[in-house]
Amino acid sequence: MKSMLCISFLFFAGIGINASVAADQPSPIHQWSFDAQAVQGTQVNAAQGNLPGKANARVIIRKHGEIPAMQMDGKTSILIAADATKIAWPKKTISLEGWVRVDAQAKLPDWGGFISALQDNGDYERGILLGFHKNQFCLAITSEKTKRLTYLNCRTPFEYDRWYHLVGTYDGKEMRVYVDGKLENSSLAQQGDILYPPKFVYELGAYHDDNEHYRHAGWLHELSVFDQAISEKMVVDRFNAKRKLFPTPAELIDGPYVEMVDRTTVKIKYVTDLDCPTVIELGPKGEKSQVLAGKVAMCDHTRTVLNIEPDREYEFRVHLQGDDGSISMTETFKFDSTFVYTLPPKPKIDSPFVKNEWSDAISSYAARALKESDSEKGYCLIVGCGDGRLAYEIAMRSGMQVVAVDDDEANVAEARTLLDEAGLYGVRVSVHHGKLDDLPYGPYFANLILSQTCLMTGKAPAGATELKRVLQPAGGVLMLGSTTTDSSAKAPLTAWAKPLGDAKTENVDGSTFVTYTRPKLENSGVWTHQYGEADNSSNSKDELIKGPMEVLWWGKPGPRPMPDRGARNPAPLSANGVLYVQGDRVLFGIDAYNGTILWSYQLPMMRRTNIPRDSSNMVANDEGVFIAIGSDVVGFHGRTGERLCKLNVPVEKEKEEDEGKYDWGYLAAIGNQIIGSANHKRAGYRGDVGEWYEDFKPGQIDRVTSSHLFSIDSSENRPQWNYRNGVILNSTITISNGKIFFVESRNPAAKAKAGSRLVEEIKKDQFIVAIDLKTGDKVWDKAVDLTKCEYMVYLSYANHTLLVTGTDRNKTYHMYAFDSGGGTELWQRHDKAKKNHHSGQLQHPAHIRDKIYVNQHVISLREGKSLRSNIAERRGCGTMSASNGSLFYRHYFQGMWDLESDKRSEFQGIRSGCWLGIIPAGGIVLAPETSSGCSCTHAIQTSIAYVPINRLGRKAESEMSGSEKAASDKHSPKDR
Amino acid sequence: MRKILITIAVVLVISPNVPAADWPTYMSDVSRSGVTTEQLSYPLNSQWTWQSKYRPRPAWTGPAKEDKYNKPGALAARVLFDRTFFTVSAGKSLVFGSSADDKIYCLDVASGKPRWVFYTEGPVRLAPVIAGEQVYAGSDDGHVYCLKLADGSLKWKRMIGPRDRRVPGNGRMISAWPVRGGLSIDGDVLYGAAGMFPNDGVFAVALNTADGKSLWQTQMADLPAQGYTLASSTKLYVPTGRNNPTVFDRKSGKRLYTVKGKQGGTYCLLTGDQLIHGPGKTGSIGITDANSKDQLATFAGNHMIVTPTVSYLHTNTELSALDRVKYLELLKERNTATARQKHLAKVLKALGSKGDPAKVKTTRDELIALGKKINGFTQGMAACMKFKVPCDSPLALILAGDSLIAGGSDQVTAYDVADGKLKWKEKVTGNAFGLSVANGRLFVSTDAGTIHCFSRGDLQ
Question: How far is CA A954 from CA A549, A958, B279, in A?
């Protein structure tokens, strides 16, 4: 009886909604509701307008939540009229409406249609379309004013696998496009009567004209055409009338975080806002999924899934059970089981090492050394390995790769045999034969250096300088021990360590241990923010990186986990010996000095692109990395990947209605302060469909803005201050010398849309603002006119000077310098872009001491004088990065300009991506793989690091001969 | 009496009077043809299985999933040389190197038991070569090793790079000049290459097989060396990973040219006057004329086996046989006709509506005739297909006697070379990337680190 009552209530409620809508709403002239009654086989009957359609193949109707929908497989569409000229089309006013969903596909066409009645063939453009271009919905209309189609794109990209209510209207004067009841964009480009082609088809679920026929992959619930421009209120009413019937994706309040434990095991973590049991629906992409039910109600969920197929892309979503028993589902997330970066499992076999008088001492030495080192992964070098017992202990107690070397062939043979028998030989332990005082290894690679023979004899196996050469800066540990009871042996070990400086000596149970932890390289720099530091100088200030380079390490990540090269992706970062790389929804912590992947997480919600019009979502400090995901910032420890913190966009007291409204925009880490800004949800670019944001077009140049700035004490997760005034341009936020500088627009029209993507509105009432880093109080502001900065606008800082850089639509650079003390203008420059393609017009300036490097000019910082303009063109997309001695950029290959010698060179065979991908930091050059997706024939796709040869006290391995250089240029692969 | 006669007949059939063939190098010979005269008698039975403690550790993982800007479709992996432990065999020995534990293994072909192992100091990614009584192998430790086949003892070793500098590379501590230009031997000369990063120098070498002394060494400063070297009578071909192979004069070591085109890839084989290589960016095989360095044709596919007249093409789903000689003749003619067609179309456009009517007519007539001719060539090319059969083993392909043998996921299959009919199918553990046939045995290597030996039951 109870259920009957409920059903009756719902039934009448449903009727009520429809009736009220019907009373207030105009009737569509054409309408198709895709349900089981209307769709039979290939026949699609109309709900209004008596225009039945015919599908070219049988279509499937399925229920989504409470509503039926028709599946479009990318091969099927509904033809309404082969000769659409016979239809009585609206003449001057029209609205097109659809409840639509686009599904993520391996190969999506750039164009798609839901209602298509047009011709767009070269110069001949007529008709109407409700559809999409790449990942933006659009309305297209031709009127007598232009006699060309205007494709009015939504400003916000749509998300795949999600239902939307899409409406396009035209009232004879203005085009408008709405998504989910909100106005997304409008245009006055078309006016007057709508022009239709003399020959065209009327088709649903496709973009179809004489030249193109792109069929839709996704779902359609209902499509309607009106002969009037329905009002904004009507749009909202129509959206509200049905929206609750559609499944709205449930949101996790944290996560998901996906970690491949091994080739066939994945761990998925997420947090729900209520204690509830959850179900994971998971399967290889495009194949049947399995359902994994969780029975226990909890908030903090960790699910371990076994029997994952190796090397596959997977999809999953989480079903959440509400208090009332209702089930909601998240959107579909993805992970890739290829991304396993752990060593093979340790063998479960007995040790082949027979217990002897050294067993306990060696075991204890291994434990002590691992405790001293904070490296669970990386390389352990054992110099003088004896029978391999210490190598065995380290390998079994840690995730380190052990490289053991001995100058005694018999020792080497014995160690190899025993370690092989232990099942460790090869990937986990390798034993080399060679001289101990002239090691064949490159510099900096060893996280931990030990010696078994020293422990047994009390004699250091090699000179301290030689061992220090291969020891990792920023935390590498060298520990030599001696168990000899001969008291005179202790002094030599202590004396041996003297060249190391502050090594410590400990006597424990009759044994002596000398330990040295190598600090950061003196005068090395950091790359903690998108453009070096928070000053946006594109300079790490590293003094060590100059002159010829050689390879320090190479390896993973390769191209598969990385984002497509073109989308102007966030830069890698490096601090305190760790390199942070943001792949395509995969985050890596990598040992900067040996390339070991310390940890990685697949974060399906992490993505930001078009950095020239936004700020990065990632910053680092000595402790770890912080990444903005949705409305949160999550911190991970650099060496372990353990979670440090989770911070949210703070809600201001007087703005409590704003909770959940914002994504985290700008991000900086200064000491314990995390500086952030607030964007509208989904205001950031995702760049998932091949964008490279090169052209002067809406949807490419729109700036991501913030409504306010704030500071949080990360150690206590305590909000400190808020700054809210104008609309802040994320790409301009700059921090140095205790101040935060940025450009904001105080135009009321901009402020009404603060936090979204804006262009025209932010050109008015522009100010450069300086606020105090500690308090958020305004220090000074200055009205400025930066309207010429049309393509993009950057702000950067060096030596008390603030520099604004931008280009206009004709690709002329406009630069404005101000004194950072009070905003006094120092100079302006206006230079034609010397290269006007492949990012030539988008270059971010690099500051080196009192000089600016941009647009193939060297400019004096305080005076704005051109010091040099004869700089050769840099080929390829991308922007430059700098140390104090060199500049790095993409040329044919990875390129470098050494300032001292004024020589330009290239790292042959390897290309970079289309923004900032090479960072000089920590005394080395780090270039994670950023060419992903390039189908060119560059010979090598790898992450790589280079070390200056002059630091090693010798010359380059090879100087390129003239003929080889010629051959190199000749065979440089073409791309794009 | 009848029983005795049957026995004799069976022995005659199973033991044809054909000398047993070795498989001394990757894909059988220095052309990397993948062809052996060795006949196998089906059905084959599993004789033994050898299992490595660790799976192979290829240097490179998969390519990007797609090129989102150009949208050519799913991208293919072009650097494929070490996905398994590729085997070579001579007499009683089966030899291979390990990318997981740095060793060179020699197994007894009859039992699968180790005869000896030899430790190098880095991953051994490419198959060794057996020549006479010696085994030659290159290692990521930067050395070429010469071992005695009988007992694995070291005869000589030679470092190819300028010095012994080792750095972390592809997750291991290896030489900055790893030997990844797979070795080839012709007569008493061994060819190979070492070096990954052109700025550090990449070296193609010819060594005397007897003592490892250098006959020539040529430095490249633009391309790495990755993949098995190939030798024609006059030239040495060195694959370069994702880029195209580069070519040297065998005698002098002089670098001649790099093959043109956008193909790239480390899968290569030589026919008499043509280099076939791939896979291209989305999985294709290109044919390049050895004398012109230009590509003649490309085929969608992963592998190709070439006999004097027929090419067998192997895609993800099919195995087909093509009258290659005739096909390429027709293709050349069609290309010539197409070029002429393009030229005439331009001429016609230039003449426009006000052009000399007679000339317009002549040009139009020739264009029409050319169109028909091109259609004829296209039809003729289609008719060159001798057979096309479904094949669900797309990972490796060789030709042994009258059988095409294909490696797949968890299986190996054999097809009749005459008509593509399935002759035999057997399960294996893992993806079967490596196939070799020697002396009546089929060896299948997989990415699980498993080596399977199949032969007829009574083979000793």
Answer: 11, 12, 41
CB A356 within 8 A of CB A421: no
> Residues with Cβ < 8 Å from B360, sequence gap 6 or more?
B348, B351
Mean pLDDT on B190-217? 97
Q: What angle do CA B105, B109, B112 make, to 5 degrees?
A: 65
In angstroms, what separates the C-alpha of B159 from chain A's closest C-alpha?
A: 13
Neighbours of A761 (CB within 10 A): 20
* Partner-chain residue, chosen from B69, B98, B219, that has the shortest CB–CB distance to A976: B69
SS3 of B373, please? helix
| Chain B interface test: which of A428, A430, A688, A965 (most B C-beta within 10 Å) | A430
Closest of B282, B295, B281, B180 to residue B240, by C-alpha: B180
Secondary structure of A157-172 in HEC code, one letter for each residue: CCCCCEEEEEEEEECC
Rg from Cα positions in chain B: 24
Q: How far is CA B339 from CA A572, B333, B352, B367, in A?
A: 48, 10, 20, 11
Own/partner pairs, A459-462, CB within 8 angstroms, 24+ separation: A459/A492, A460/A492, A460/A493, A460/A496, A461/A383, A461/A384, A461/A436, A461/A437, A462/A383, A462/A436, A462/A437
Query: Is the separation of the CB atoms in B172 and A595 below 8 Å?
Result: no
| pLDDT of residue A957 exceeding 50 | no
- Across the range A469-490, mean pLDDT stands at 85
* CA-closest candidate to residue A250, choices A221, A279, A222: A279
Which tokens belong to A511? 């044994």
Greatest alpha-carbon span in chain B: 94
pLDDT of residue B296: 76
Does any CB of chain A come closer than 8 Å to the CB of residue B410? no
In 3D space, the residue among A576, A589, A598 whose CA is nearest the CA of residue A517 turns out to be: A576
Instruction: Specify whether the backbone of B349 is left (phi greater than 0), alpha (psi in -120 to 50) or beta.
Output: alpha
Which residues are bridge partners to A868 per DSSP?
A: A858
- pLDDT-based confidence at A962, cuts 50/70/90? very low
The Cα B116–Cα B107 span in angstroms is: 7
Contact predicate B407/B400, CB 8 Å = no
Strand partners, B390: B318
B253-281: per-residue pLDDT in tens?
999 999 988 889 999 999 887 899 999 88
CB contact under 8 A, B176 and A688: no
Expressed in angstroms, the distance from the first to the final Cα of chain B is 27
Interface mutation target, options B117, B121, B174, B222, chain A, most CBs of A under 10 Å: B222
B78-119 pLDDT, tens per residue? 999 999 999 999 999 999 999 999 999 999 999 999 999 999
Asked whether A137 and A240 are in contact (CB, 8 A), the reply is: no
pTM above 0.90, yes or no: no
How high is the mean pLDDT of chain A? 91
DSSP three-state, residue A685: strand
Rounded-to-integer distance, Cα B262 and Cα B194, Å = 24
Query: Would you call A774 helix, strand, or coil by DSSP?
Result: coil
Contact B240, A941 (CB under 8 A): no
pLDDT band at A964 (very low <50, low <70, confident <90, very high): very low
Residue A268 near residue A302, CB atoms below 8 Å: yes
Q: Pick from A427, A351, A443: which is nearest to A388 by CA? A: A351
Residue A283, phi then psi, degrees to nearest 5: -170, 165
What SS3 class is residue A370? Answer: helix
The ipTM value here is 0.91
The DSSP letter of residue A658 is G
